[in-house]
Amino acid sequence: QVQLRESGGGLVQAGGSLRLSCATSGIIFRVYAMSWYRQASGKEREMVASVTTGGITNYSEDVEGRFTISRDNAKNMVFLQMNSLRPEDSAVYYCAATSYTIFWGQGTQVTVSS
To answer: Cβ of 66: how many Cβ atoms within 10 Å?
Structure first.
Protein backbone atom coordinates (compact mmCIF):
# COMPACT_ATOMS: atom_id res chain seq x y z
CA GLN A 1 0.00 0.00 0.00
CA VAL A 2 1.39 3.36 -1.05
CA GLN A 3 1.45 6.03 1.62
CA LEU A 4 2.73 9.58 1.59
CA ARG A 5 2.46 11.35 4.93
CA GLU A 6 3.16 15.05 5.25
CA SER A 7 4.04 16.74 8.51
CA GLY A 8 5.46 20.03 9.74
CA GLY A 9 2.67 22.41 8.85
CA GLY A 10 1.29 24.94 11.28
CA LEU A 11 0.77 28.59 12.07
CA VAL A 12 3.68 30.99 11.65
CA GLN A 13 4.10 34.74 11.46
CA ALA A 14 5.10 36.44 8.25
CA GLY A 15 8.85 36.28 7.80
CA GLY A 16 9.08 33.01 9.68
CA SER A 17 10.11 29.55 8.58
CA LEU A 18 8.67 26.06 8.47
CA ARG A 19 10.07 22.75 7.34
CA LEU A 20 7.68 20.27 5.80
CA SER A 21 8.47 16.58 5.68
CA CYS A 22 6.94 13.80 3.62
CA ALA A 23 7.52 10.20 4.59
CA THR A 24 6.77 7.62 1.93
CA SER A 25 6.20 3.88 1.96
CA GLY A 26 5.10 1.30 -0.56
CA ILE A 27 7.06 2.79 -3.48
CA ILE A 28 10.60 2.44 -4.78
CA PHE A 29 11.37 5.97 -3.70
CA ARG A 30 14.53 6.49 -5.73
CA VAL A 31 12.73 6.10 -9.07
CA TYR A 32 10.11 8.74 -8.31
CA ALA A 33 10.38 12.44 -8.92
CA MET A 34 9.09 14.20 -5.84
CA SER A 35 7.16 17.42 -5.68
CA TRP A 36 5.40 19.75 -3.33
CA TYR A 37 2.12 21.30 -4.39
CA ARG A 38 -0.14 23.70 -2.57
CA GLN A 39 -3.78 24.63 -2.77
CA ALA A 40 -5.10 27.79 -1.23
CA SER A 41 -8.77 28.16 -0.42
CA GLY A 42 -10.75 28.79 -3.59
CA LYS A 43 -7.74 28.30 -5.85
CA GLU A 44 -6.38 25.51 -7.99
CA ARG A 45 -3.60 23.25 -6.82
CA GLU A 46 -0.21 24.48 -8.01
CA MET A 47 3.26 23.00 -8.02
CA VAL A 48 5.74 24.93 -5.90
CA ALA A 49 8.85 22.74 -5.99
CA SER A 50 10.08 19.51 -7.49
CA VAL A 51 13.20 17.35 -7.40
CA THR A 52 14.06 14.71 -9.98
CA THR A 53 15.49 11.31 -9.29
CA GLY A 54 18.88 12.82 -10.11
CA GLY A 55 18.47 15.68 -7.67
CA ILE A 56 17.63 18.46 -10.12
CA THR A 57 15.32 20.98 -8.51
CA ASN A 58 12.73 23.33 -9.93
CA TYR A 59 10.69 26.04 -8.25
CA SER A 60 7.75 28.22 -9.07
CA GLU A 61 8.53 31.89 -9.44
CA ASP A 62 6.54 32.65 -6.30
CA VAL A 63 8.86 30.64 -4.05
CA GLU A 64 12.19 30.77 -5.90
CA GLY A 65 14.90 31.85 -3.47
CA ARG A 66 12.74 31.29 -0.38
CA PHE A 67 11.89 27.58 -0.50
CA THR A 68 14.28 24.65 -0.80
CA ILE A 69 13.26 21.12 -1.70
CA SER A 70 15.47 18.17 -0.83
CA ARG A 71 15.20 14.41 -0.81
CA ASP A 72 16.77 11.66 1.26
CA ASN A 73 16.70 8.42 -0.69
CA ALA A 74 18.00 6.46 2.29
CA LYS A 75 15.03 7.53 4.40
CA ASN A 76 12.46 7.63 1.56
CA MET A 77 11.63 11.19 2.48
CA VAL A 78 11.33 14.57 0.83
CA PHE A 79 11.49 17.94 2.57
CA LEU A 80 10.49 21.51 1.90
CA GLN A 81 12.31 24.22 3.80
CA MET A 82 10.22 27.39 3.65
CA ASN A 83 11.80 30.68 4.67
CA SER A 84 10.60 34.28 4.56
CA LEU A 85 7.03 33.09 4.59
CA ARG A 86 4.28 35.42 3.41
CA PRO A 87 0.55 35.41 4.08
CA GLU A 88 -0.01 34.41 0.45
CA ASP A 89 1.92 31.19 1.11
CA SER A 90 -0.97 30.01 3.28
CA ALA A 91 -2.39 26.82 1.79
CA VAL A 92 -2.66 23.10 2.19
CA TYR A 93 0.66 21.65 1.06
CA TYR A 94 0.73 18.26 -0.63
CA CYS A 95 3.55 15.88 -1.29
CA ALA A 96 3.47 14.01 -4.63
CA ALA A 97 5.47 11.12 -6.04
CA THR A 98 5.56 10.91 -9.83
CA SER A 99 6.74 8.17 -12.13
CA TYR A 100 4.36 6.44 -14.56
CA THR A 101 1.63 7.51 -12.19
CA ILE A 102 1.28 10.02 -9.41
CA PHE A 103 0.63 9.41 -5.75
CA TRP A 104 -0.55 12.10 -3.37
CA GLY A 105 -0.37 12.67 0.33
CA GLN A 106 -3.26 13.95 2.43
CA GLY A 107 -1.78 17.41 2.86
CA THR A 108 -0.68 19.60 5.73
CA GLN A 109 -2.02 23.06 6.48
CA VAL A 110 0.32 26.04 6.47
CA THR A 111 -1.03 29.34 7.74
CA VAL A 112 1.04 32.50 7.67
CA SER A 113 -0.28 35.40 9.69
CA SER A 114 0.49 39.01 8.82
So the answer is: 15
